[in-house]
């Protein structure tokens, strides 16, 4: 294992970068800077130095086939995952007690994510909204049961969640709601979504503070084609009384499946 050590400007402490996993060169990340070099060793030095200086940075990738380096905002949970062709090595700032070193105050924190690979899933901050649901989201792998709608595979890894629209009434809603208490600050929500079919209705992200009316924060409607898309960043002002809802509505026929995958909630505002 290769380890790099940088000195943080504010604390003068040494923070090592550990090789934590391999990722695809096309992995969707919040890239801060990209660099090309003549060798991997050169890129290691450049990226470790850049990441140490930039307080937003917590990781960097070295993509050996392209001789490409990129510094990254955020971090990747230390869980196994599938890797496509064109492998990059991800080096992250080592932090005891959490997945991520929050650089502004030097504390170790973790972020919430739902990849739907396990059931139950301890890291997931969402659960079925038992008080508001009219039908449930379905955890699934592979293609959905109806032709002309739904994905054929997950956006990442093996499992995803979707609404099965062949049996439920028009206009009914399946809702996931947050089940953790938030700090009083702005968070960043990211996720993959798939909306394919002639009768796809709507997918929305909403927040609700206490008993106040829920507020739409993001929404998509209609057929987007047979592809996964990524909501790359939705800033949400949250506090201990506020919940997040992800709501999918059934259209007029069985060709209205809506799917989501790899929902993440980062403890900072989106860039």
Summarize the structure.
By secondary structure, this protein is mainly beta.
Mind explaining what this structure looks like?
It comes from Crassostrea virginica (Eastern oyster). This is MAM and LDL-receptor class A domain-containing protein 1-like. Residues 112-271 form the MAM domain. This protein has one helix spanning 40-53; strands spanning 3-7, 14-24, 30-36, 57-63, 68-73, 87-93, 100-102, 107-109, 112-114, 126-128, 138-141, 159-163, 173-178, 185-195, 202-209, 215-221, 228-238, 242-249, 258-266. The protein is mainly β and 271 residues long. It folds into two domains: 3-109, Hepatocyte Growth Factor (3-Layer(bba) Sandwich); 112-266, Jelly Rolls. The strands form four sheets. The chain has a six-stranded antiparallel beta sheet with strand order 1-2-6-4-5-3, with helices on one face. Strands 9, 11, 12, 14, 17 and 19 form a six-stranded antiparallel beta sheet that branches. The longest helix has 14 residues, at 40-53. Residues 6-12 have low confidence and may be disordered.
In CATH, what is the class of the largest domain?
A: Mainly Beta
Report the uncertain regions: 6-12
Shape: globular
Count of domain modules: 2
Residues in helices, as a percent range? under 10%
Structural class: mainly beta
Beta-strand segment tally: 19
- What strand order characterises the main sheet? 1-2-6-4-5-3
Strand content: over 45%
Largest sheet: 6 strands, antiparallel
CATH topology of the largest domain: Jelly Rolls
Q: Encode the helix/strand succession as letters.
A: EEEHEEEEEEEEEEEEEEEE
Ends apart, CA distance between termini: 31 Å
- Using only C-alpha atoms, the radius of gyration works out to 20 Å
Question: Helical element count?
Answer: 1
Q: Which architecture of the largest domain does the CATH hierarchy give at level 2?
A: Sandwich
Average pLDDT, all residues? 86
């Amino acid at each position: 294992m290769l380890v790099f050590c940088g000195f943080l400007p504010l604390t003068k402490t040494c923070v090592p970068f550990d090789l934590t996993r391999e990722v695809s060169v096309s992995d969707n990340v919040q890239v801060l800077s990209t660099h090309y070099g003549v060798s991997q060793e050169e890129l290691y030095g450049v990226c470790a130095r850049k990441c140490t200086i930039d307080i937003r940075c917590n990781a960097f990738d070295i993509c050996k086939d392209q001789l490409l380096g990129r510094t990254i905002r955020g971090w990747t949970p230390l869980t196994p995952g599938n890797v496509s062709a064109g492998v990059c090595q991800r080096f992250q700032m080592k932090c005891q007690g959490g997945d991520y070193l929050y650089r502004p105050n030097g504390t170790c924190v973790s972020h919430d994510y739902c990849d739907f690979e396990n059931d139950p899933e301890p890291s997931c901050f969402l659960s079925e909204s038992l008080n508001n649901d009219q039908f449930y989201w379905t955890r699934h792998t592979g293609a959905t049961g109806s032709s002309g709608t739904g994905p054929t595979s997950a956006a990442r890894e093996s499992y995803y969640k979707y609404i099965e629209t062949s049996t439920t009434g028009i206009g009914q809603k399946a809702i996931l709601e947050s089940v953790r208490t938030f700090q009083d600050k702005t968070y960043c929500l990211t996720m993959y979504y798939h909306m394919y079919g002639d009768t796809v209705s709507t997918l929305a992200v909403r927040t609700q503070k206490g008993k106040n009316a829920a507020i739409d924060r993001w929404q998509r409607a209609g057929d987007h084609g047979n592809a996964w898309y990524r909501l790359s960043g939705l800033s949400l002002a949250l506090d201990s009384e506020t919940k997040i809802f992800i709501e999918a509505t059934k259209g007029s026929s069985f060709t209205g499946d809506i799917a989501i995958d790899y929902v993440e909630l980062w403890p900072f505002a989106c860039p």
